[in-house]
Amino acid sequence: VAKPFSQTQVMVGCSGLTATDPRRYAMMVFSSILGGGMSSRLFQTIREQRGLAYSTYCFSHPHSDVGSFGVYAACAPTASAEVTGLMEAEWELLAANGPTDDEMARVKGQIRGSALLANEEAFAHMNRLGRGEILMGELPSIHEVLGRVDAVTAADVRELGADLAARARSRVVVGPA
User: Fold this and answer.
1) How would you list the strands of the sheet with 53-62, edge to edge?
2) Which residue has the higher pLDDT, 130 or 163?
3) 88-123 b/e with 16+ CB inside 10 Å = b?
4) Which of 3, 28, 88, 110 is most buried, taking the most CB atoms under 10 A from its CB?
């Protein structure tokens, strides 16, 4: 379909983890380090250092029987190939070398703060409980979840990253490339 686009949307993804995969806490850490905010590797490399995209992030969507994982950016059409290469390079670099101690501490703090704040909202609290019951068959307290996140090591993140990096990937480009 030909339409006039001013930006190109780029996504690279693969199969992810199921909601019951014990590595889901490592996935929270991996995703946050790679593309979970303004201090993430994708944001810093693609937006701040190179100015190639306004928006870039990482996502993980676990379900009962399948999951998805990917990276995304919205950029100028002339930058789409470079941005795609940078997203994959950051993904592979994190998978190969793992996170730094500073990244681990920063991201665990971000996850803790976000989870505690979200748990104060009735909708988010009930959503967490519903997902726990329906998808995982367990209702861990927020403190149990945070304890599991705190137990994630840099080696856990690196191993999960290597697993994801080895999976077949799909690349989607919407807009002029």
Assistant:
1) 53-62, 67-75, 8-15, 170-174
2) 163
3) eebbeebbeebbeeebbebbbebbeeebeeebeeee
4) 28
